[in-house]
């Protein structure tokens, strides 16, 4: 079982350095008391600092920075409070920050009354942004750097936060148990899809319920004002991943038009991973199936992108524009991945008279 899990994690992480850490962890002999190895500090630091937290990685998701003096911990880019980086939780504020690469120590100062957070913004915050700042303050609340302590790493699942390979294995087994066979199948299909990595990562986060929807943030104890807890497209239902990507009435119309375009009408199951499997199951042959994988990923990615623009930039979006955008992206992805051999013009590609499936 351990080796299988290891194989799956390798798929998720790609061929990066994380695998090296995993191999080390594995060689340490999980589950064998007394033979556990500690972290390889250098490798961990390399893995966790690279990329600034854009890619959700299982490995990274389970370790947390322990803040000592705060000199080596990136304020926005590393997980040191809660389950996610502040950059992901508060993208708008990150955007406005004047100390994007700064460390925790640099984000405040010690005064006679104690530690005071002192964020520097590019301009004065607007009302809504001030609320976000207040949310962020309440999240990092009582934490403050200690000048005499060195920064370190915590393994979040283990009692006392100390990493052990046994705890890592148990967490791994737990994650395995939580996912349906469908999830594992969907996960494997997703990573072979003809789509850019950024879109695949969003799609992957959706099938393992790791997108920062309001519901997921509330689960992580992030305080969200009551009036913002709902899906901001229909302002009616709780914002879960399944709702915001599939079942919201507005989003449902997007899927209807996509179905019309490809001339296939598949069921819309409750859960995102089932929806993905059912959608790609509508294509006969490898070529069609590959195209549908890319199309599903592109659709989910753009729905989420429009959702974020709606929520953080107050942009209102139209179903027809989103669908046009999806078709346009798929057109340019097809130039890269060559799934559909097609000489049709762009306007033909976008029209309902044309189906990219054969
Ligand atoms: Zn909705």
Describe, in plain words, how this protein is organized in 3D.
The chain contains 17 helices and 4 strands. The protein is mainly alpha-helical and 358 residues long. It folds into 2 domains: 169 residues, no CATH class; 170 residues, no CATH class. The chain has a two-stranded antiparallel ribbon. A two-stranded antiparallel ribbon has the order 2-3. The longest helix has 29 residues. The protein starts with a helix and ends in an 8-residue tail after the last helix. The relative contact order is 0.09. The N terminus is likely disordered. Bound molecules: zinc ion. The site of zinc ion (ZN) has 7 residues, from loops.
